[in-house]
Each structure stands twice: as C-alpha cells, then as structure tokens.
Design a protein that fits this description.
385 residues, alpha/beta, Aspartate Aminotransferase, domain 1, Aspartate Aminotransferase, domain 2, 2 domains, seven-stranded mixed beta sheet, four-stranded mixed beta sheet, 39% helix, 18% strand, binds pyridoxal-5'-phosphate
Length: 385
C-alpha cells in the first residue's frame, strides 16, 4: 500500500521537487541551520516585529497570571468568546472605518470558510489565476462554479463579467492585493470600477501580504487606494507583518451576522487563545505609528528589485516580495544553497507552488534588514547565464 506513496516521493526527489521540514533555530533576525548563522530572508515578519524583543517585553509587562489565558477551551459560539475578541474586532472596525470585523483562527480558515458559506450553486466565482491555495480550497468547498482569469488580466475579467452577470444570482471576484509568489499587485481601482458596473458583483480581496505593510496606517493596499468601503470581503492575516496568528475579515454587519451562522471554519473550531488575541490587539494598535518601518521596507525592496532585474532575471512585481525567477528547480536549489553559504537564508520555491519552469528564489524582505545587508546581498547575486 505504501509502495505507490514511496514511488511518488521518489519521483519528486528526481525532479528536485521533494520537500522536507527544515531544522532551524531562530535568533532574532537570524536563523541557524546546519550550524550556520544566516540572515533570515524567507520569513513573513515584514515589519520585523516578531524579532523585536522590546515589543515582546512590553507586552509581557501587560500580563498577569489572570490575564494570561492560554486557551479559549471552546468555539466562540459556545463559551470561547472572551471579551478580548470583541475588543480587537472593534479596534479593527474603527481603524478601517468599517461597519464590522470578524476574527478567524488563520488566513487559511478565513479563505476556506467564507467562500463556501456565501457562494451557492447560483454563484459564479471569478478568481485570479494566481490566488493562494487557501482561496482555491475555499472555492472547491463551495457549491459555486468557478472560472479562473489570467493573472491580473482586467480585460478578460471585464469580458467574463459582461458575459455572465445576468446568468448567475451573484458573482464574486476573488483576488489577492499583493500576490504571494510574484510580489506584484492587483489593480484595485479597476476591480472596484468593474464591481460597481453591476449590481450583483462582490469583491473579495486577500491582503495577507499587504496588511501592516501598505497604506498610511498599514491597513493594506485598499487603504492606499482609498477603497476599503468598496470591498465586500476584505481579508487579512495576523501571521505575517502583525507578528501573531489569526486573521480578520472587514465587512458589513449583515455579512458578519451571516458568517456567524454559516461559516464552518468559525463555528466548528476552538477559538484562538485569548492571550494570542491580546498580543494581536497590542500589535495592531501600534501599526498606524510604524510608517518609518514601512518606508525603510519600501526603500530596500526597490534596491533589491532593481538589482535582480539588472542581474538579468525576470523579476515581476513592485513589493517587498522580490522573486528571482531562475527556471529549473535544480538550478534554483543550487543558487539557494550558494546564497545560504554566503549567509543569506533563502529558499527555493518550486512547483506545485509556482508553475512548472518558473522555480525561483523568493526574497522576502523585512524592515529588520538593513540597507547595508541588502547591498551585501546584491553583490552576491549570481548573474544569469
Ligand atoms: C499566508 C497566506 C494565507 C494564509 O494565512 P495564515 O494566517 O498563514 O493561514 C492566506 N492568503 C494568502 C494570500 C497568504 O499569503
């Protein structure tokens, strides 16, 4: 019975696409692997907050054994709804200037729960070709029909909306704002314009990589483009720039009330530990004041992106996620190993995470990386050819 599984693993190994769990130790901004200390360029700690000891220390001072509550011991619909949940939701609604916010255990829970709850058989989902696996899984769990449009192809999306808007009760357009693997961005103003062309189109935007990083107050690309209120489902995670865990949806009251009744990944799971929510609230309250970290991140991202392009690689995008598209998986693995030798902890991103033939090194910059370190990295970039 296991032999077919073993064969499959062998095939992955032969294609240089086998994955294993890396053994790592963390030391602030650095990681130690195989006895080597390297600058961590693979983390999603975009503002450098997870590696910030002062922030953690300040938070610990707010706790007592009474308020350090390590488990909610239940779903929020039973007895797990500690007051801190509502407090964080109120803070988010206020920051976003929105009617309501709803918390989830993770971005994965959010994306696999919201779509199946709201999309029925009379719904058409139009999803960008490159949306995150969690949205794909949410779409699969829903009863809706789904069509994927070419990545960021607004003309194709416009044609699909024209063709289908009166054949379905509702259409949900699903996208990320900053895309995980290419680090490029959705055209939010055009998406909002298209949505408003019809009265049965909803917009679903995942800001996983933009929350904390983009916008004046760090609320994401929707804040930057001043279109928070135009997005029906504005989703983000606390697992990345907010240095915590969990996720949020910013939405209307009626949608929140509906999800509390229908969303299986909210109802049938133990709510996150209250101490965790308290930490998230502690961090989120400080996000608006972190524009210096955001500006530094923008600066070093531009330096690296330009250098990757000049070294001859395809380098789409415009954000702090800087891909260096190498092509073949084995060459990408070699280059990752080489950069690790030089003290930069980067990992090779390979199929099926990215399309065949587009294996890449994905530099994930954080505000804790200095300009000097980026300049050093640029000197180490292997040239194409
Ligand atoms: C990381 C990520 C998620 C998952 O969020 P978690 O909180 O880590 O589960 C969802 N969507 C996108 C686009 C992501 O990059």
């Amino acid at each position: 019975m296991c032999s077919s599984i073993e064969q499959e693993l062998d095939a992955l190994r032969a294609q240089s696409n086998l994955r294993t769990l890396p053994l790592l130790k963390h030391d602030g901004r650095m990681v130690v692997a195989d006895g080597k200390r390297m600058l961590n360029l693979s983390s999603n700690d975009y503002l450098g907050l997870a590696s910030d000891l002062r922030l953690r220390t300040a938070f610990l001072h707010t706790l007592t054994p009474d308020t350090f509550i390590p488990s909610s011991s239940s779903s929020r619909l039973l007895t797990g709804n500690f007051p801190v949940y509502g407090e964080l939701e109120a803070l988010l609604a206020q920051l976003f200037g929105a009617e309501a916010a709803l918390l989830f255990n993770s971005g994965y829970h959010a994306n696999t729960g919201i779509l199946p709850a709201v999309a029925d058989a009379q719904t058409l989902i139009l999803a960008d070709k490159l949306v995150h696996a969690s949205m794909i899984d949410g779409i699969r769990l829903s009863a809706a029909r789904c069509i994927r449009y070419r990545h960021n192809d607004m003309k194709q999306l416009e044609r699909l909306l024209q063709e289908y808007h009166n054949r379905y009760r509702q259409i949900i357009v699903v996208t990320e704002s900053v895309f995980s693997m290419d680090g490029d961005e959705a055209d939010l103003p055009t998406l909002v314009g298209l949505k408003h062309t019809y009265n049965n189109v909803w917009l679903y935007v995942d800001e996983a990589h933009a929350f904390g990083v983009r916008g004046k107050n760090g609320l994401g690309c929707a804040e930057e483009h001043d279109c928070i209120c135009d997005i029906d489902f504005l989703v983000g995670t606390f697992g990345k720039a907010a240095a915590s865990t969990g996720a949020y949806l910013v939405c209307k009251h009626v949608i929140k009330a509906y999800l509390v009744n229908r969303m299986r990944t909210l109802i049938f799971t133990t709510a996150l530990p209250p101490v965790n929510i308290a930490w998230t609230r502690f961090v989120v309250a400080q996000l608006p004041g972190m524009s210096q970290r955001r500006a530094h991140l923008t600066h070093i991202s531009r330096l690296l992106r330009e250098a990757v392009g000049q070294a001859g690689y395809g380098c789409p995008g415009s954000s702090h996620i800087v891909p260096m598209i190498v092509g073949a998986s084995n060459r990408t693995l070699q280059q990752a190993a080489q950069l690790q030798q030089q003290g930069f902890y980067v990992s090779a991103v390979r199929p099926p995470t990215v399309p065949e033939g587009t294996s890449r090194i994905r530099f994930s910059l954080t505000a804790a990386v200095t300009t000097e370190e980026v300049e050093q990295l640029i000197r180490c970039l292997p040239r194409v050819g």
